[in-house]
Amino acid sequence: MHRLRGRVPFWDPVIDEIDGRRIRVGDHWLIDFASCNYLGLDLEPEIMAAVPEYLARWGTHPSWCRLVGNPRLFTELEQALAELLGAEDTLLFPTVSHIHFSVLPALAGAGAVFVELRAHHTIHEGARMASTRGARVIRFREENLPGLARKLAASDRNPKVICVDGVNSMTGNGPPLAELTELARAYDALLYIDDAHGFGVLGERSADELSPYGSRGNGTVRHLGGDYDGLVLVGGLSKAYSSLLAFVACPPEIRHFLRIAAGPYTYSGPPPVASFATAQAGLRFNAIRGDVRRADLYRRTSRVLDGIHALGLETRNETGFPIIEVPLADPDLIEPLGTFLFNRGILATMVPYPIVPRRETGFRISVTAANTDAEIEELLRVIAAAADRFPLRRAADGPETGDG
Ligand SMILES: Cc1ncc(COP(=O)(O)O)c(C=O)c1O
């Protein structure tokens, strides 16, 4: 992975300018299918317009760590998020990574952290930090829940925390929430879910929903019909809400504990005021136009998925979530494939080993509501050309087994 840096155009590029979802790198224009600004709120004029008033009231940056001074910006947003989620309480941090690196070790203490193998890298890092404080880290696969049950039964450590992604950042798929909840309850474990991607896109189901993403974008737990009993939901606003903020949804007693035990509350600076402005404006937008925007996102994503299926290519996406990974049969061709896509004007997220297992090396497309239909058609033309030239994995090949 490190050898790609500086050697190939698609790795670590400097972006000089944006124009909608088109970006300029030097004198080369590309269409951006790597952003996770799913709802397109980063480009929404009414959200940008919310910033100056906040800056006039609060300055650019509060600068206090929260323990020293809590601008009302925090508590207002925490309340608004709790209401949207239908959770008892929330606690804000700057990023999801801050939460995994501090909240997870605090919750785990000297107990046991059960981490799903495919969970995001930052959860694994958080688990490693928990292990330096005495917790035992045990890995499991979501496909093998009886295996997890055996590991839970065999562990005499307490507390027990089970960590999974809400929406996996490579497959776009969700966890088996009902089964995990049952196991967590049976073994008195806390279920810890990273919903960095799902929050803002997926939401509660209803008969009159405008798309299979559900309504209100209030997160994976509501989408899958779960509740917050014995569950800590970690959500981010840096993807669907295009704002640097993240939250933990948890009961008041855990919130109180985290204010003392999670380092960033005491030691880290706050997110910028502009992020509070765009988050609040985003929530107002969500209440009025969010479902229509999500229906549009679903339609655009379905077009990409249909195109990929029509080409006979494999993708693990089973949900229609706007994350679509296309694997390469020969992982050693990642460099020429990435260069091909880049030169043909597509910015995708290239995912080499060890970001994913070797057999899943490929590229990831993330679709946003701000990608135009014409951009999506161009994407499909370039993928078709890539499929002619590179051994992209075919759906007919079937999944491989082994650890890669
Ligand atoms: C599933 C998941 N968790 C956590 C993160 C890190 O989030 P943050 O940028 O808020 O630290 C990401 C970032 O892409 C992610 O995809």
TrEMBL record:
<keyword id="KW-0032">Aminotransferase</keyword>
<dbReference type="Pfam" id="PF00155">
    <property type="entry name" value="Aminotran_1_2"/>
</dbReference>
<dbReference type="InterPro" id="IPR004839">
    <property type="entry name" value="Aminotransferase_I/II_large"/>
</dbReference>
<dbReference type="InterPro" id="IPR015421">
    <property type="entry name" value="PyrdxlP-dep_Trfase_major"/>
</dbReference>
<dbReference type="InterPro" id="IPR050087">
    <property type="entry name" value="AON_synthase_class-II"/>
</dbReference>
<dbReference type="GO" id="GO:0008483">
    <property type="term" value="F:transaminase activity"/>
</dbReference>
<protein>
    <recommendedName>
        <fullName>8-amino-7-oxononanoate synthase</fullName>
        <ecNumber>2.3.1.47</ecNumber>
    </recommendedName>
</protein>
<dbReference type="InterPro" id="IPR015424">
    <property type="entry name" value="PyrdxlP-dep_Trfase"/>
</dbReference>
<dbReference type="GO" id="GO:0008710">
    <property type="term" value="F:8-amino-7-oxononanoate synthase activity"/>
</dbReference>
<feature type="domain" description="Aminotransferase class I/classII large">
    <location>
        <begin position="31"/>
        <end position="383"/>
    </location>
</feature>
<keyword id="KW-0808">Transferase</keyword>
<dbReference type="InterPro" id="IPR015422">
    <property type="entry name" value="PyrdxlP-dep_Trfase_small"/>
</dbReference>
<dbReference type="GO" id="GO:0030170">
    <property type="term" value="F:pyridoxal phosphate binding"/>
</dbReference>
